[in-house]
């Protein structure tokens, strides 16, 4: 989250963005390049984290549900990438990135079941947490961990969580593109 936000902050510098928009590259094409670059950075970070986790997990034996955990983690990673893209488009101050990223990451973790299991959280807290992608990531992980056999109803529950996470990713990307366009219009 810090990496993408910091990169976007640099490219959203008023002078640099004005120079970029004087180029013959259209704004849509430039946004596509930003998205693809962020996607490449995101996938690279995900591959490194999964590689390290896999190496550590090989000693203990990989779970039968490993592929589902990977699928859930890549969808959540895309969601976090879109949030980072939005933060990078919203912030103007380099010093604020660290504070905002800490609040945006740790806040949902506390109420979604990352630090405290979801069964110990109250219903009201879980209702509030359900408005965050972290809640759905944790819920999917709980469901994947409890899988003993894969049938259509188990897969539907997991797919439901994954679709909600993916919906959050699309929503954050859409909002960040709208914010970027508004910034671009105000800078010209």
Keywords:
single chain, 188 residues, mainly alpha, elongated
Structure description:
The chain has eight helices and no strands. The mean pLDDT is about 85. Helix 3 packs antiparallel against helix 4 (about 65-90) and helix 5 (about 95-110) packs across helix 7. By secondary structure, it is mainly α.
Write the layout of secondary structure elements.
Layout: H1 2-11, H2 14-21, H3 27-60, H4 66-90, H5 94-112, H6 123-129, H7 133-145, H8 152-187
Helix pairs in contact: 1-4, 1-5, 3-4, 4-7, 4-8, 5-7, 7-8
> How large is the share of residues in beta strands?
under 5%
Distance between the termini: 28 Å
Low-confidence stretches: none
Overall average residue pLDDT: 85
Radius of gyration computed on alpha carbons: 19 Å
Q: Give the biggest sheet.
A: none
Structural class: mainly alpha
Count the E strands.
Answer: 0
- Determine the number of helices (DSSP H or I, runs of at least 4 residues): 8
Topology pattern, helix = H, strand = E: HHHHHHHH
Helix amount, in percent?
Answer: over 70%
How does the overall form come out from the CA principal axes?
A: elongated
Question: Could you give a short description of this structure?
Answer:
The protein has 188 residues and is mainly α.
């Amino acid at each position: 989250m810090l990496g993408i936000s910091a990169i976007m902050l640099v490219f959203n510098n008023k002078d640099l963005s004005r120079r970029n928009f004087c180029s013959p590259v259209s704004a849509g094409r430039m946004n596509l390049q930003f998205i693809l670059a962020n996607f490449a950075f995101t996938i690279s970070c995900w591959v490194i984290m999964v590689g390290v986790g896999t190496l550590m997990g090989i000693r203990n034996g990989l779970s039968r549900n490993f592929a589902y955990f990977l699928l859930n983690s890549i969808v959540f990673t895309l969601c976090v990438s879109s949030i980072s893209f939005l933060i990078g488009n919203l912030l103007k101050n380099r010093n604020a990135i660290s504070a905002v990223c800490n609040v945006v990451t740790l806040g949902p973790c506390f109420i979604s079941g990352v630090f405290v299991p979801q069964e110990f959280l109250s219903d009201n807290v879980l209702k509030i947490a359900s408005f965050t992608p972290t809640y759905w990531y944790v819920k999917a992980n709980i469901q994947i961990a409890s899988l003993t056999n894969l049938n259509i109803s188990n897969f539907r529950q997991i797919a439901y969580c994954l679709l909600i996470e993916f919906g959050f990713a699309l929503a954050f990307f859409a909002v960040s593109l709208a914010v970027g366009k508004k910034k671009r219009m105000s800078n010209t």
